[in-house]
Amino acid sequence: MESAKIKQGIGGRIADVAIYVVCGLFMLLCIYPFYYVIIYSISDPNQASSGLLFLPKGYSMETFKGIFRLNDIPRAFLISVARSVIGTALTLIGSSFFAYLVTNQKMFARKFIYRFVILTMYLNAGLIPWYMTMKAYGLQNNFLLYVVPGIVTAYYVILIKTYMEQLPRELEESAKIDGAGIFTIFGRIIMPLSKPIIATIAVYAVVGQWNAWTDNYFLVTDNKLQTLQMVLYNYMNQANRFQNMSSSAMDSSAAVSMITPTSIKMCITVIVVVPIMCVYPFLQRYFVKGIMMGAVKG
Asked: Residue 16: how many CB atoms within 10 A of its CB?
């Protein structure tokens, strides 16, 4: 018996070590590509072109300086921030309120309306009808194009509705007895109790808004309304031209020679990804709880 326990203990330890090794390698595969982009972006481009592994070669922020010296980058950054903040706020309010309405058993044609919204997830008219619709609504070259179409999103409605259906109905009924209206109940009772799923939706929405660029590509030609994603996408595809533009904006000829197309692409990647990564830590504690509780039913 003792030898069996010893063998089992050794086998268990070997299995634990193997699990840790596999998980560590998987984590390295996930983290290393972004780590590589970061160390490349802060390295001397001429030295980094010969190859990097785990440590940056030299140190240079000239590529970042060259990017932010261009006039359209700060403006595009502000447009993207405004789009992400306003669009996410409207999405949370619109989708959560709609989800709350369809949880009301007394709502007229509740099931039909809810199923009709869900149907939009599976049926898509295509790019041309979408373009014609947005243009007919007057959203071409309009900031509202970025925030209005996503106010009610079917996927978010499903998650929020499923979560709200698990809340005690007695709270809502007692509030009605005290004379509270639908907006008071929603704002002071339902929303505070739905923080986990709201935070989860906020992560999804802000990432989606920050990364979106197709609506800008098809319907916005005004340079003052260009988002950061669209501007950097153009620069990414024309890195050599951008190198010449950023070089002309610099004063030092030594600094000019340090900028390369590859360093430009690496810096653009960091600029795009880092801001959105800063949002997740503030909502992370709600994220898993919201997903798990919202997935119990339906």
From this structure: 10
Distance between CA atoms of residues 112 and 127, nearest Å: 26
pLDDT in tens, the chain (298 residues): 445 445 557 777 888 888 889 998 888 888 888 888 888 877 777 777 777 777 777 777 777 777 777 767 788 888 988 999 999 999 999 999 999 988 888 888 888 888 888 888 888 778 888 899 898 998 888 999 999 998 998 899 988 888 888 888 888 888 888 787 888 888 888 888 888 888 888 888 988 898 888 889 899 888 888 888 888 777 777 655 555 555 555 544 444 445 677 777 777 778 778 777 777 776 666 666 555 554 444 4
Q: Does residue 164 contact residue 198 with C-beta atoms inside 8 Å?
A: no
State the Cα angle at 97 between 136 and 195, rounded to 5°: 125
For residue 225, the 8-state DSSP code is G
pTM more than 0.90? no
Q: How far apart are CA 253 and CA 26, in angstroms?
A: 43
DSSP state of 223: G
Spatial contact of 172 and 189, defined as CB atoms under 8 Å apart: yes
Please measure the distance between the N-terminal and C-terminal CA atoms of the chain and give it in whole angstroms: 49
Q: What is the largest CA-CA distance in the chain?
A: 80
What is the rounded CA–CA span in Å between residue 184 and residue 172?
Answer: 10
Q: What is the DSSP string of 137-155?
A: TT-TT-THHHHSTTSS-HH
H helices, E strands: number in the chain: 18, 0
Which of 295, 283, 252, 277 has its CA nearest to residue 61?
252
240-268 burial, b for 16+ CB within 10 Å, e for fewer? Answer: eebbeebbeebeeeebbebbbeebbbbbb
Give the span between the Cα atoms of 179 and 279, in whole angstroms.
Answer: 38
